[in-house]
């Protein structure tokens, strides 16, 4: 069983499945600390002085160095519930809640799910099962770039001055991902609203669209920021499954003539207004743990609020930068701005 950080991720995931958020985040953070080290741990003394490693984490790492594995982790890995939820949540559109529901009904395999006619699957889950074989395989950097060329060409027809950035794991330098994430925008304010619908239409016309879940923008600057951490932002976005022809991927010749010549790939597109691009880019670059820590740092060390839309300074008016003496959350604004907004 892999590295100490893999072991900690297993524990984190198991806690996520039983909805113990505190321990889940604790193990995730500890795993991130280990992954951030310049060199892998060689022995237990290497963890001396590292932050965010609790006693349970230390015990797991110690077991791995002394016995080759952690009994606590091995137990989770052989646990029927963990194994089943792991399989169920590997389907696009299936989260821990649905997986748990199926598990409690006595279901244990994907075959049982698809052959049980009493189970209602939503549109996303149907696509998740339909393309499971392809989208459960990692997406390579070359495949991500090939998807990028297709989307860029289509978006360029909508507007020649479109900006597009490959984000998510690939922006962090990963060689493989579970999907491909892109941020797109156009300079003229408001024009970005038409961008994703146009891209989706064109993918459909070209026969490349296998699944689409489009979400309209609910972005309203005057109602931000929200007090609570929001995983989802308010920008227009879509979660897609697209058909990627193998011949379009660099280094992948139109090999064996047998079988399909295409692969289904999960793609996320986000279209913030141009003036919000920087914040959206930061938010969509991940990792989730890094984003969480950045927000925490902003809040605790800088008295600011960071999310995918903006960086808010709680001590100055967001609109005119005047110092606010009385802290106002949500939405930092001075008295004159506040009254102007009321009468507007
Ligand atoms: P993911 O694509 O889920 O993760 P990833 O690209 O880091 O890893 P993988 O290679 O497995 O795909 O999400 C990318 C980033 O976008 C992540 O930091 C979370 C963020 N995100 C949002 O900010 N808002 C959203 O609505 C979603 C779905 C993701
Ligand atoms: Mn991704
Ligand atoms: Mn994604
Ligand atoms: Mn003001």
TrEMBL record:
Listed GO MF terms: DNA binding; DNA nucleotidylexotransferase activity; DNA-directed DNA polymerase activity; metal ion binding
Source domain of life: Eukaryota
DNA-directed DNA polymerase X domain location: 3-328
SMART domains recorded: POLXc
Keyword Transferase: yes
Cofactor(s) needed by this chain: Mg(2+)
Keyword terms, alphabetized: Magnesium, Metal-binding, Nucleotidyltransferase, Nucleus, Transferase
Xref: InterPro entries: DNA-dir_DNA_pol_X, DNA_pol-X_BS, DNA_pol_B_palm_palm, DNA_pol_lambd_fingers_domain, DNA_pol_lamdba_lyase_dom_sf, DNA_Pol_thumb_sf, DNA_pol_X, NT_sf
Pfam assignment, any one: DNA_pol_B_palm
Record has Transferase as a keyword: yes
Binding residues for Mg(2+): 179, 181, 268
Protein name: DNA-directed DNA polymerase X domain-containing protein
Species name: Ameiurus melas
